[in-house]
Amino acid sequence: MTIEEIKQKVASKEYNFLRENEHLGKNIILLGLGGSHAYGTNTESSDLDVRGIAVNRKEEILSNIRFEQFVNEETDTTIYSFNKIIALLSNCNPNTIEILGLKPEHYLYINSVGKELLNNSHMFLSKKCVQSFGGYANSQLRRLDNKAVRLVGQAERENHILNSIKNAFATFPDKYFPFKDGDIKLYIDKAVQEDYDTEIFMDVNLKHYPLRDYKSMWSEMNNIVKDYSKIGKRNKHAIEHEKLGKHMMHLVRLFYTCFDILENERIVTYRKEEHDLLMDIRNGKYLDDNRQPIPEFFELVDELEKRLDYDKVNTSLPDKPDYKRINDFAISVNERIVKGEL
């Protein structure tokens, strides 16, 4: 489907909700492609995904009326409210930050406020992308078959689990009672469990720490470990529907998008340079005869994780986004709406 064909489709009656819904219509500031068409990994059978942003109306800004997003499942369309997407972008949320990095021709509609947002996209970039993209990538990794992970060795599998836990661990200071660096240490050492070569250990040195917060942290880490034992059942469904290669492709794509943010301080959604690799993964080159990931795929992921570890130490990006600039921009837009200037 060409861009012109996509534009004609979006202009059809099927998408009339974009023009008729009270939250959308003239409130839309940006409309663009999402999913495989945006990444450059689409095939002839790929569905069309549309993503967009709509400013909040005056009454929503000044009252308790809430509008966060509009979803039309029949057309795979999601429109975020301006105020909600500002919060998501500030956390470098992968599903939303990619909207700011589309190819120019992939924007189906954009007005002056939408252009302002794109021109100021750098203010959202920070080291937060390491946790947001890394955590999302690891959630994709946990969808893959633990049998395949074992093929590269139990020790490597334990490393995958530890990386997933570390991504979750990095979010704990924002959610739970604070603790000092080194109070909780996670590492891999020689196993005490039978049939294990190595395993994950914890050193904990907490005093006067809220029990419920500790329980919540423990539950998050425990759930990640449990996820690896559930992957086989989940993967059976994915294999039956030929989706496993797609999960694997998105895992790798997330890493490369994050590398562009950390190394080049830019958002690049369309993955031109990695296109052939991504399509090979999607089309099953890294699956065995039983449609399971082969060891070479996990070796690739290991290399990507090492690059991410290097980037998070050596990037020039700040630890946090430019909150003052972000807030000033959000205030400016909302103020203009209230005054009737938009």
UniProtKB/TrEMBL annotation:
Entry keyword set: Transferase
MF GO annotations: transferase activity
InterPro entries: NT_sf, RlaP
Protein name: Nucleotidyltransferase
